[in-house]
Amino acid sequence: MTNSAVQEEFLRSFHAVRPAVTAEAFGRGRGPDGRSSYELVRDRVAGHRRVLDLGCGDGLLLDLLARGGGRELAGVDLSPQSLALARRRPALRAARLHTGRAQELPFPEGSFDACVSHLALMLMGDIEQVAAEVARVLVPGGVLVCAVGGGAVGGEAYERFVRLLRRAGEHSPARIPALGDPRVRGREGLQEVLRPAGFGDVEWEIVPIDIGGTLEQVWESVSGLYDLAPMEERAVVRLREDFLADVADLITPEGTVPCGFTVHLASAGLTRPLRRTSLPPR
Ligand SMILES: C[S@@+](CC[C@H](N)C(=O)[O-])C[C@H]1O[C@@H](n2cnc3c(N)ncnc32)[C@H](O)[C@@H]1O
Question: Which domains does the chain have, with CATH numbers?
Fold first, then answer.
C-alpha cells in the first residue's frame, strides 16, 4: 500500500465513526469579527457561481454557499458516511456530491470558477496531483481558497489539550499515519505546490478562531482530533479527567472555556490554463 492509500484508509475509517466531527467543532467557532472559518472561506468566493469543495465532509461549507442562491455546487470526499450527511441537507439537493479522491476529480476541464477546501487540503497525500487536478477543473482565472489548520492560541484550552495529549502519547505506542503534506501548512510551501500547476501568488492570512464553549463542548471538540483514534479507552478517560482539571481555571463567569486555534486562510488564482497532466499522454 502506498503512503497515500494508508492515510486515506485511516481517514475513511475515522470518519465512518465521526462523519461530522469538524463541523461540530468549527461550525460554532468564531473569529475576531464574529464569522466562523467556514464563513470566512465562503466570503472569499462571493461572486463565483460554480464552486467545488474538496474534502467537503458533511457539507457545512457547501450549505453556506448554497444559501447565497444561484450557485452550481459540487463536493468530493473520501468518506461515504460524511457525504450521506451532506446529501441530507435540503440546500444541497441539487449539488453533485461524489465519494472519491481529490487526486482524481470526476469533472471535465474548466468545470468550476472556484474551488474551496476547509481543513482538508493539509490532509491530502500526492498533493501535486491534487493541485494539478484543481487547476484542470478550474477555468483560467478561477480561484482556490482554502483554510488549513495552524496551531493553538497560547494559554487557552486547545494548547493545554495538545500538551496533555503529547504526554499521554509518550506512554502509548499506537500512532496514526502522518497525514498529508506539511508544506501545505505554510504560505511558501503551498506556493511551491501550487506554482507548477499554474497558480499565481498565494495570499495568506492567519485568523484566530475560538472554538470555545461549555467544558463538555470543548472536550467534544478537542477529543475529535485524529490523534486520539488509536488510544485505548482508559487512556482517553484519563486524558479527559486531566484536561477537565487542567482547564478549570479558564472557566469564565458565563461557564464557558476559551479554546483558540489559528486557521490559515489561503487564496490563489489560476493564472494560466494547465495541460491535462492527470491524463496519460496520447
Ligand atoms: C478535517 S475533515 C474536514 C471536513 C470538512 N471540510 C469540514 O471542514 O467540515 C477532512 C475531510 O477531508 C476528507 N479528505 C481527506 N483527504 C481527502 C482526499 N484525498 N480526497 C477527498 N477527500 C479527502 C476527509 O475524508 C474528511 O472528510
Answer: 3-152+178-211+260-269 (3.40.50.150)
